[in-house]
């Protein structure tokens, strides 16, 4: 089986004025195996919202600033591609409020 690679956009530097492409850096890391009771979500869409610009500054605001090297969080749509210990949740399409600008994310599955 091919190893999954997590592509994630991290804050590379704080913008001065309008954000430029060099404010972000693309990092690629292997996706680790998920633990029992977790699901693996493949992000399909990530919302880009105005509040994100304020989080790029290192200043007090209603939302904490992101640190250099961290991924931006936002709303997303994804699909569950793996579930442990069973696969009954695989291929569910989900919408999440808080996620990050990366290809894959692991979350603890709620008990049903």
What does this structure look like?
By secondary structure, this protein is mostly beta strands. The protein has 1 helix and 6 strands; from the N terminus they run βββαβββ. It has one domain: Alpha-Beta Complex (Quinone Oxidoreductase, Chain A, domain 1). About 5% of the residues lie in helices and about 40% in strands. The strands form 2 sheets. Strands 5-4-3-6 form a 4-stranded antiparallel β-sheet, with no helix packed on it. The protein is elongated, with a radius of gyration of 16 Å. About 10% of the residues are buried. The mean pLDDT is about 80.
Keywords:
Quinone Oxidoreductase, Chain A, domain 1; 4% helix; 112 residues; two-stranded antiparallel sheet; mainly beta
* Major sheet summary line: 4 strands, antiparallel
- State the CATH class: Alpha Beta
Classify the secondary structure makeup into a structural class.
Answer: mainly beta
How far apart the termini lie comes to 30 Å
Count of β-strands: 6
> Strand order of the main beta sheet, please?
5-4-3-6
- Give the number of domains: 1
| CATH level-two architecture | Alpha-Beta Complex
CATH superfamily: Medium-chain alcohol dehydrogenases, catalytic domain
Please estimate the helix content: under 10%
- How is the CATH topology named? Quinone Oxidoreductase, Chain A, domain 1
Q: Would you tell me the overall average pLDDT?
A: 82
* Alpha plus pi helix count: 1
Report the order of strands and helices: EEEHEEE
Rg result: 16 Å
Shape: elongated
